[in-house]
C-alpha cells in the first residue's frame, strides 16, 4: 500500500463532479484521483481550510462517536474496486483490537483528516496519473484551442473582422448632410 495525502479537490471538466486528488507522500507527482460527491468534497475542504462550525457536522459527529466509544482511527485505506466503485475501510483501534469498517473512500478520507490518521491506497486498485502528464495535457489542449481560434471560420466573417479592426470612432459621427431638421 502507498501512503497518500489529500493534495486538493478538483472538478471533472465534463461532469462537474468533484475529484479528490491523493498524492503519493514519497513522490507528489504521482496522483490518485477519486471522483466523490459534493457533500464529501465540502467536508474535506472545510477540514483542510480550518473552518470551525458552531455545531458538529456529520464527519465531526462520527469522530465524536468513535472517541466516545473509546476508539481511535489508526488509518484508512482504499483497498478494492467492485462494479466501478472504490471500496475503502476505516481501521479503528479499541482496547488493543483493530476493527475494520467498510466505507466509501470519500467518507474514509474525511474521517482520516479529522483524526490526523494516515491514508493509504492499493496501487493496483486506484489508477495512478502523473501531475506532469496532466499539466502537459492542459498545455497541449490550450495550444490546440488557440490554433483553432486563429483559423478563419469563413471569408465573410473574416472580412467583417478586418472591417472592425479598421473602424474609428469618427466613422460613427454624423456628417452635416446626414442631420435631419426637426
TrEMBL record:
Protein species of origin: Persephonella atlantica
Top-rank taxon, per record: Bacteria
UniProt xrefs under InterPro entries: BFN_sf, Bi_nuclease_dom
Residue ranges of coiled coil: none
Domain BFN: 1-133
Database matches in Gene3D superfamilies: Bifunctional nuclease domain
Protein name stated in the entry: Bifunctional nuclease family protein
Transmembrane segments: none
Amino acid at each position: 500500500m502507498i501512503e497518500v495525502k489529500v493534495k486538493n479537490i478538483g472538478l471533472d471538466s465534463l461532469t462537474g463532479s468533484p475529484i479528490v486528488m491523493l498524492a503519493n507522500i514519497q513522490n507528489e507527482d504521482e496522483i490518485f484521483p477519486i471522483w466523490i460527491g459534493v457533500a464529501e468534497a465540502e467536508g474535506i475542504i472545510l477540514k483542510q481550510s480550518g473552518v470551525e462550525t458552531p455545531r458538529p457536522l456529520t464527519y465531526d459527529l462520527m469522530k465524536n462517536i468513535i472517541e466516545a466509544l473509546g476508539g481511535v482511527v489508526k488509518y484508512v485505506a482504499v483497498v478494492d474496486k467492485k462494479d466501478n466503485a472504490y471500496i475503502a475501510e476505516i481501521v479503528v483501534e479499541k482496547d488493543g483490537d483493530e476493527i475494520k469498517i467498510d466505507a466509501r473512500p470519500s467518507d474514509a478520507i474525511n474521517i482520516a483528516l479529522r483524526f490526523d490518521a494516515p491514508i493509504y491506497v492499493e496501487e493496483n486498485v486506484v489508477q495512478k496519473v502523473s501531475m506532469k502528464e496532466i499539466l502537459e495535457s492542459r498545455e497541449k489542449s490550450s495550444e490546440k484551442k488557440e490554433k483553432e481560434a486563429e483559423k478563419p471560420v469563413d471569408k465573410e466573417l473574416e472580412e467583417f473582422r478586418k472591417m472592425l479592426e479598421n473602424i474609428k470612432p469618427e466613422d460613427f459621427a454624423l456628417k452635416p448632410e446626414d442631420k435631419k431638421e426637426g
